C-alpha cells in the first residue's frame, strides 16, 4: 500500500468527522431556571461522552465518536455564555415568558403550553418557545383576550 493512499484515506476520514456547527438562533437567549439547568446538564453529558470516546484506540473510530459531543459542546458553551435567566412571572394577569397559558381553539380543542426558551421548548411535552408564532401573539394578553393564528381564533382561558 502506498503512503499517498494512506494519507488520502486518513484525510477523508478526518473530514468525515468534522460536523458542521449547530445553528445558533439570532434571538435573545432567554432561559428559565429549569432551562439553564438543562443546558448545564447537557453540556456535562457532552463532555462525558467526549471523554468516554477518548479511550478508543482506533483513531478513526475515536474521531467519529468524539465528533458529535465536540459539536454539542461548542453549541452548549455558546448558549450558556449568552443565556439570560428570566425570573418566573410574579403575576398571572398577563401572559409572559415563563407563564403557562391555556387557550381554546375554534374547533373546541383546549391546549396548555408553558412559554420558555428556544432550547427547552418541546411542544409534545407542553412547552413552546417564546419566539414561536403562537407565543408571540399570546404574550402581553390577558384571560378573555383572543388572537388569530393561521385563520383560527385562540381565546385565553387561564394563565398560571
Supply the CATH class of the largest domain. Mainly Alpha
What structural class is derived from the secondary structure elements?
alpha/beta
Q: Indicate the overall shape.
A: elongated
Cα gyration radius (Å): 22 Å
- Average pLDDT, rounded to a whole number, is 92
User: What is the CATH architecture assignment of the largest domain?
Assistant: Orthogonal Bundle
Sheet with the most strands?
5 strands, mixed
Terminal Cα separation, in Å?
A: 69 Å
What does this protein look like?
The chain has helices spanning 3-16, 33-54, 59-82, 133-138; strands at 30-31, 84-85, 100-105, 110-116, 127-129, 146-149, 152-159. The protein is an alpha/beta fold and 160 residues long. The chain folds into two domains: 3-85, Orthogonal Bundle (Helix Hairpins); 100-159, Roll (Chitinase A, domain 3). The strands form two sheets. The chain has a five-stranded mixed β-sheet with strand order 5-4-3-7-6. The chain has a two-stranded parallel ribbon with strand order 1-2. Helix 2 packs antiparallel against helix 3 (59-82). The longest helix is centred in the middle third of the chain and has 24 residues, at 59-82.
Summarize the structure.
This protein has helices at 3-16, 33-54, 59-82, 133-138, and strands at residues 30-31, 84-85, 100-105, 110-116, 127-129, 146-149, 152-159.
Descriptive keywords:
alpha/beta, Helix Hairpins, Chitinase A, domain 3, 41% helix, elongated, disordered N terminus
Describe how the helices and strands are arranged.
Blueprint: H1 3-16, E1 30-31, H2 33-54, H3 59-82, E2 84-85, E3 100-105, E4 110-116, E5 127-129, H4 133-138, E6 146-149, E7 152-159
Parallel strand pairs: 1-2, 4-5
Antiparallel strand pairs: 3-4, 3-7, 6-7
